[in-house]
Design brief:
With about 375 residues, the protein is of the alpha/beta class. It is about 40% helix and about 25% strand. The strands form four sheets. Strands 5-4-13-14-15-12-16 form a seven-stranded mixed sheet, with helices on both faces. Strands 7-2-1-11-18-17 form a six-stranded mixed sheet, with helices on both faces. A three-stranded antiparallel sheet has the order 8-9-10. The radius of gyration is 21 Å and the shape is globular. The model has no long low-confidence stretch (mean pLDDT about 90).
Length: about 375
């Protein structure tokens, strides 16, 4: 039986564990966090990501947790509405083969599907990696050494596996910070079954109200020194960047002050590296190609990457050859998503009021019946 050590118990790592476990591999997953974590931002599964979720058998559980489509209200700084994008617009544009879920729910679904197929070790890190043509040896922080046929680094944008195998220098830091957290109850100023979104020069704030335990807040802004923002922490940094806004923002920030434990708060980075594998070690997900939240396809690409990796390994006994074929097939899609994310930054953090006006004009145009079909076809092409 072939053995694999997977570093990271996020979406990419758990999806890889599920796929390889079903293919008969003996799977070990190591995760530095002491327990599973949850996060309150939304992820969209469409195109190859939806197809991968279907092949992995995740759709029944995910469908039960799906958030569906909702109305979006573009608002001014004081919370007054500018215009509304009905939920039917998103439904018509995205089609039926799409799911929107909380990232934490996707991770929980994956964990429940794989927990009996893998040896999952929390609070454990990799301290050394050594390999030859026959095997890879992974030394762990608990003092043990695992010998495996394959090492998968799925440990995120700051991947220690990537550094150990390829060295440093592949992370590209961008001048943006994002924050997201779940809301136990809807906040005042946000209509039921809708999202209110403020887009201003250099920043975006979105509050989604889908009911108790189904509501969330998302913030993104441009800044000169993301590292300094991270040192301030989410409460102080987001209060300074968005404290002047009205609508649902004050209520969301008050919840964050009361309980910041669930908050995702990080600088925005992409990973650009010439190759994703070396011998019997391979990177997957954000560790290999981080596209950022601005791309909107990170979770879908992680699922698709894991599923396609399993398919390549099943076709080839030669593991390095399988990894090379897998990368050749997936790299163009990852590069496209990274390019779309860089353009998407202008949407989430417009550089000027003129860019805000142009963004509003574009969104208004989407609501026109003749444009709606064009948008859907564009989404379908981009999702293939």
């Amino acid at each position: 039986m072939k053995r694999v050590v997977i570093v990271g118990a996020g979406i990419a790592g758990l999806a890889t564990a599920l796929r390889l476990g079903r293919d008969g591999w003996q799977v070990i997953v190591v995760e530095r966090a002491p327990a599973r974590r949850s996060s309150g931002y939304l992820v969209n599964l469409l195109g190859p990501g939806y197809a991968a979720a279907e092949r992995l058998g995740l759709l029944p559980a995910l469908s039960a947790r799906a958030l569906g489509v909702f109305t979006t209200v573009l608002v001014r700084a004081d919370g007054r509405p500018k215009f509304t994008v009905p939920s039917a617009i998103a439904e018509a544009a995205l089609g039926t083969r799409t799911l929107t879920v909380f990232r934490g729910d996707l991770e929980s679904t994956l964990y429940e599907a794989v927990r009996d197929r893998a040896d999952i070790r929390f609070g454990t890190t990799v301290t050394a990696v050594d390999q030859d043509v026959d095997q890879v040896r992974v030394t762990l922080s608990d003092g043990t050494t695992e010998r495996a046929d394959l090492l998968v680094g799925a440990d995120g944008v700051r991947s220690a596996t990537r550094t150990a195998v390829f060295g440093s220098g592949s992370q590209v830091d961008l001048p943006y910070v994002v924050g997201a957290f779940s809301l136990p109850h809807p906040v005042a100023g946000v209509p039921e079954s809708s999202a209110t979104t403020f887009i201003g020069p250099g920043r975006t704030a979105a509050i989604v109200n889908l009911g108790p335990r189904r509501s969330t807040a998302f913030f993104a802004y441009r800044c000169a020194d993301p590292a300094a923002e991270l040192k301030r922490g989410p409460v102080a940094a987001l209060r300074a960047a968005f404290g002047d806004l009205g609508g649902g923002v004050p209520g969301a920030l008050r919840h964050l002050e009361e309980d910041p434990s669930d908050a995702y708060f990080d600088a925005v980075s992409q990973v650009v590296i010439p190759r994703w594998s070396a011998g019997r070690a391979v990177l997957l997900g954000d560790a290999a190609w981080c596209v950022t939240l601005f791309a909107g396809h990170g979770a879908a690409l992680a699922l698709a990457g894991a599923d396609q990796l399993g398919a390549a390994l099943r076709q080839h006994d030669d593991i390095p050859a399988a990894l090379a074929e897998w990368e050749a097939g997936l790299r163009p899609e990852a590069a496209k998503r990274q390019a779309l994310a860089r353009r998407g930054m202008l949407q989430y953090a417009p550089p000027s009021r003129f860019h805000v006006w142009m963004s509003d004009l574009t969104i208004r145009a989407i609501t026109l019946p003749g444009i709606r079909g064009l948008v859907r076809r564009g989404i379908e092409r981009a999702s293939r």
